[in-house]
Amino acid sequence: MTVTEDVPRATSRKRSDRMLAVLALLEPGATVTLTELTRTLGVSSATVRRDLADLEEQGLLVRTHGGARASAAVRTEVPVRLRDSQFRLAKQRIARRAAELIPTGPYSVAISGGTTTAEVAKVLANRPDLAIVTNALTTAMEIASRPNLKVIMTGGVVRSTSFEAVGVLAENTFNAINVGTAILGTDGISAAGGATTHDETEARTNNAMVCHAQRVVVVADGSKVGRVTLAKMADLSQVHVLVTDTTADPDELARIVAAGVDVIVVEV
Q1: Residue 265 to residues 98, 146, 224, 248, 261: CA-CA distances in angstroms?
Q2: 20 in Cβ contact with 78 (< 8 Å)
Q3: How would you classify residue 43: left for phi > 0, otherwise alpha for psi between -120 and 50, otherwise beta?
Q4: Which range among 47-56, 109-118, 162-171, 237-246 shows the weakest confidence by mean pLDDT?
Q5: Domains in the chain and their CATH numbers?
Q6: Could you give the C-alpha distances from 197 to 25, 193, 224, in angstroms and in order?
Q7: In this predicted structure, what is the pLDDT of residue 181?
Q8: What is the mean pLDDT of residues 80-109?
């Protein structure tokens, strides 16, 4: 089943966009000059220097005399603090639609890490009688002060790129509970690969969440549809609903529907 809903065009935060543009220029082994960056980004050299200093502090690049080069640690995953600005309004609309799938009254929800899942948590924050289990520090901090919610945080080792607690302690928490719905963020979802992420430990943790949920809802903006990354979190047979947007590849969505997943598409 495919449903289409109206959503305004998404915009993003300028500074995060600039930082993402800088990282995109710095492929492994690449060096870029300050002059190239100011020309490409259309900002002053002082602005670029501030951005480079921030990115270096986060370990994402190394500043050089007159520019920057890629960090020795090659990253395939954009840090969550920068991902937050990408497709922001689309993610908010996806989140609102996903939140509508949660029944009213007492109910339990598990929420994985990710920027779109964090938006779902924000929408659910005003709901009464919800128990929310999460391994995402950013999500827990966003909703923990709400007296109407019971917020359960897993243990585990915190990943610096996603601020998710992963590993045996987190898996044991998910293995010890049962929830009505799991809201799963993903780096890729496809008919061939299922729901995938960049990190194998994160994948095992999220699979424990999936296995103890009566229903699994994947939230993913259109850029994730058809994409396959390193580690599988869930087979499509374990996914009940995908909520995405109209930038997603329609042919891939058709294949996902054919695999038995209900697909809800919000329009951008």
Answers
A1: 11, 30, 13, 9, 12
A2: yes
A3: beta
A4: 47-56
A5: 14-75 (1.10.10.10), 87-266 (3.40.50.1360)
A6: 23, 10, 10
A7: 98
A8: 84
